[in-house]
Amino acid sequence: MHTERFIRVGDLNFYVQSWGDAGRPPLFLVHGLASTSHMFDLIAEPLAAHYSVYAYDQRGHGQSDKPSDGYEFEPIARDLDLLADALGYVDQPLTVIGHSWGAYTALYYAATRPDRTAKAVLLDGGIRPLRDLFPTWAEGEIGLAPPPYVDMTVDDIKQFIRKWQAAGYRPETEPLALTVFDLSDPHNVHAHLSRANNMLIARALWEFEPTNYYARTRCPLLIVNAVDPGKSISPEMRTYALQAETLAPSARVHWMIDTIHDIPWHRPHALTAVLADFLD
Fold first, then answer.
1. According to the model, what pLDDT value does residue 258 have?
2. Distances from the Cα of 255 to the Cαs of 70, 126, 159, 167, in angstroms?
3. What is the model's pTM?
4. What are the residue ranges in the chain where pLDDT is below 50?
5. Strand 12-19 relative to strand 94-99: parallel, antiparallel, unpaired?
6. Please, how many CA atoms are within 13 Å of residue 149, restricted to the half-sphere of its CB?
7. Residue 22, pLDDT score
8. Which of 121, 33, 35 is closest to 73 using CA atoms?
9. Who's near 176: CB < 8 A, 6+ residues apart?
10. Cα separation of 206 and 85, whole Å?
11. Listing from the earlier edge strand, what are the strands of the sheet with 26-30?
12. How far apart are CA 164 and CA 122, in angstroms?
């Protein structure tokens, strides 16, 4: 069964989707930067065969509240703590699956809350330090900035989605991708996540060093890396994956070839099989 609701945590309301029997072990799905909980709509139902599954719009995103602060990793992890508490999992370890920025969050959560993390999965994120791409914040501030979305119509956004997903575009995922945007004015569409809040998250990501966290994890850790269609695994990504396997006590890596970054949309069935093998 799928439900949608708002849960108030402190001063913030969070939009939360849930699937499955509430009596099963809890599994939380954590989306990426400038995304929404609908990133997981195509994989949540099969995961609910064995878990009580929750996906939520993170602060600043989608239908959740949008404060002007609290976008560093610790407040973001605390949001997950408080949501889990509100859902009745005060003393129960969580399985956490994060995508992109959410993968970095999942790694941070597993490392800083080892007693509260049963298993963690990093989906195409969490292992590459962004300073490798942008050595200075001046460069990162440019490279990690969101598109301006000026005077864009719904049709413009749909074209943008097709280009963004490229070889991974599937018509059935277009409505899910549209949840990233505020469509209330069809002639002035913009992202739910403000530019200011986007850049706060980008700065936290740029400052994050994954190797500082691997050794602190104690739970089984699965790293799922996408390899873009027509490309091979880069030497840099092999190095980062090896670092994770070497430094994290219980890490393993799975490569998904010919797959775009948004793995849960592009290859949901293949991803579900990979996750089932790890989670069972």
1. 97
2. 33, 14, 29, 18
3. 0.98
4. none
5. unpaired
6. 26
7. 87
8. 33
9. 36, 38, 39, 41, 42, 265
10. 30
11. 2-9, 12-19, 52-56, 26-30, 94-99, 117-123, 221-226, 251-256
12. 21
Cα 101–Cα 3–Cα 20 angle in degrees, nearest 5: 85
What confidence score (pLDDT) does residue 34 get? 97
The H or E element that residue 8 is part of is strand 2-9
Cβ partners under 8 Å of residue 247, min gap 6: 211, 214, 215
Q: Which residues pair with 55 in a beta bridge?
A: 17, 29
| Other residues' Cβ atoms within 10 Å of the Cβ of residue 186 | 11
Q: What is the pLDDT of residue 188?
A: 94
Report how far residue 145's alpha carbon sits from residue 21's, in angstroms, rounded to the nearest whole number.
40
- pLDDT, position 91: 83
Cα distances from 266 to residues 109, 222, 258, in angstroms, run: 26, 19, 10
pLDDT digits (tens, 9 = 90+) for 7-54: 999 999 999 999 999 899 999 999 999 999 999 999 999 999 999 999
Return d(Cα 221, Cα 215) in angstroms, integer.
11
Rounded distance, CA 4 to CA 242, Å? 39
Coil vs helix vs strand at 46: helix
What is the CB neighbour count within 10 angstroms for residue 66?
Answer: 15
Strand, coil or helix: what is 73? Answer: helix
**CB of 101 closer than 8 Å to CB of 205:** yes
